[in-house]
């Protein structure tokens, strides 16, 4: 019992010491920042993308493992298409059958057209003979009836072929639909990222929209911080920023990509009591994609740190230089990330 009390007291002392040093460090950081800088703590984040099936089916193969780095367009998984392949063969056979029927219909049209042409010629020969009395009217009527019958048969043959041509279009549409389902059975990556979870296994049957993988989109790396209204108001979209992570000794160039138009109460990242009583605005600081891609193997989401943002300077005032502890940048940082004056300080 006594040991438990002692352990509890030691733990409380340790927590108090850590909290005290953390508070002193935060105060020190705020004191060394010029008035046109603000900061907020957060963590490196990236959006998650679910790789899902469009149609129900059985998982045939999954070609990646958790933690694998993937590229846009890379093949990730394949769904079984045995039944779809059979349907495709069947629909293609239906197209061939419908096309053959159209060919037969075209031949019938040619035959009916010949019969119509012959009947019209016969009617033209009979008509003058009837007028001169060399042939009876009844024979002329029969000839005209034969011509009308031939014309009706010709028209029916053309209508029948038109129906058959529509059947060909329907069959081709069925082929395209099945082919689309087969194409959708091949799951590829839409982003540059890393596999976070494998949510399915080979031979597992999934419904439409079933999740196979969850991927972290490493093409969009950012940190979210929260600022009080007075500071958020002076934070423009595109403002220069630098991210200082706890795990590395360099500052990462970034820029403000989003400032929330709506305020909210205290988020989890805010740790001081004075700030907890204020409405805060969410600000997103984005790391340039070119820099992320150069260090793609080292990018780890969840790393905690602090984002520092340069606010709008007052008219007639030059922007303050970055503090010394934010001067150390990656060796391959783009020259456009800093001004000539800043380069001389780096």
Automatic annotation (TrEMBL):
Multidrug resistance protein MdtA-like barrel-sandwich hybrid domain spans which residues?
A: 48-195
Q: Do the record's keywords include Transmembrane helix?
A: yes
Entry annotated with the keyword Glycosyltransferase: no
- Gene3D superfamilies found in the cross-reference section: 2.40.30.170, 2.40.50.100, Helix hairpin bin
Return the InterPro entries for the record.
MdtA-like_BSH (IPR058625)
Q: Where are the transmembrane segments?
A: 5-26
The scientific name of the source species is Colwellia maritima
- Know the name of this protein? Biotin/lipoyl-binding protein
Q: Where is the composition biased (Polar residues)?
A: 335-346
Protein family: Belongs to the membrane fusion protein (MFP) (TC 8.A.1) family.
